[in-house]
Amino acid sequence: MLTYRPSEGSDFPHFGLVTGHDWGLIIYDEVHLLPAPIFRITAEIQARRRLGLTATLVREDGREADVFGLIGPKRSDVPWRELERQGWIATAECHEIRVPLPENERLSYAIAEEREKYRLAAENPLKLSVTQALLAQHADDQTLIIGQYLDQLKEIAETLNAPLLTGRTNNSQREKLYEQFRRGEIKRLVVSKVANFAVDLPDANVAIQVSGTFGSRQEEAQRLGRLLRPKADGRPARFYTIVTRDTRDQEFSANRQLFLTEQGYRYTIEDAEEHYALDAQTQTLNDRDASNNRAKNGSLFVGEQHKLNGRHAAPEANGAYEANSANGNGKAARPPVKSSARATLSAPASSRPRQQRTPTRHT
Description:
Layout: H1 16-19, E1 23-29, H2 37-40, E2 47-53, H3 66-70, H4 80-85, E3 92-99, H5 103-111, H6 114-122, H7 126-137, E4 143-146, H8 150-160, E5 164-165, H9 171-183, E6 188-191, E7 206-209, H10 217-225, E8 237-244, H11 248-256, H12 258-262, E9 267-271, H13 272-275, H14 279-304, E10 355-357
Parallel strand pairs: 1-2, 3-8, 3-9, 4-6, 4-7, 5-6, 7-8
Antiparallel strand pairs: 9-10
Helix pairs in contact: 5-6
């Protein structure tokens, strides 16, 4: 590899293989990566002409303009929707499906650090139920389930009995899975962020995103791009992102979608409880957690009651209270914050249209 070096402070041992030549043309694919330190070194290669290619000239560090200094001025910029109208890429429909945070998770979320809040929301167990419902709708489609966290992806892969592809998957196994997916021998493939770039799966037409790299606009666009190869039968691509309502997950999702809305796409926003019958699963999770907490707290109160200085611990409710036995004061933790969003579920689903996020144009 050209950018390989034994340690961070050492030289690039293979770099001399290319710097000693007078090149006529250098083509930088995925040129939005060039401002990163590890790739920036390649801009030192001398050539008469340079060409940079990217479908996502967007960076979260704000250094997009560095590309022009390293390569040269922009020669062409075509919106994705225009390419779609011309038939170069497939038509795409984008959906954001919002799931509630289970009541048994709300206390943990409320007291977590900011970074941990996102992970708790991103790994919401109800996302698996929605994923299964979507797969039932798209049983005959070639579907990618994409996420950020390996534990979450492993659980999904095991539940769905689908192959899992991560950074730990060796190259030969990757190519085998890709080839089976291309031939239609497997319909579902669970993938980590290794599939964000340079993956050629032309028949993939459905993607279900369960988690991502925080608010990365580039990643959102790259993941949609996995579906945009035109299909022989003209089928549209469908991109679903499942987010946890009223959490950091939803906030990051709004930022992730900015680049695509600027390109002319819009997201249809759906409530999972209305469209995917989540009420039963939500109640099951809450009941199970309440039962576990009652068993755990009951044994604590019986065995430790004489240590509480004659004071009684507050009773738990729905598994949401936790005895504070660390300092022996017997206090119960704060009850979970109740989401006001559930109040909007009282009206019948047929009386409310689905929301759509309209694109914001920047001039």
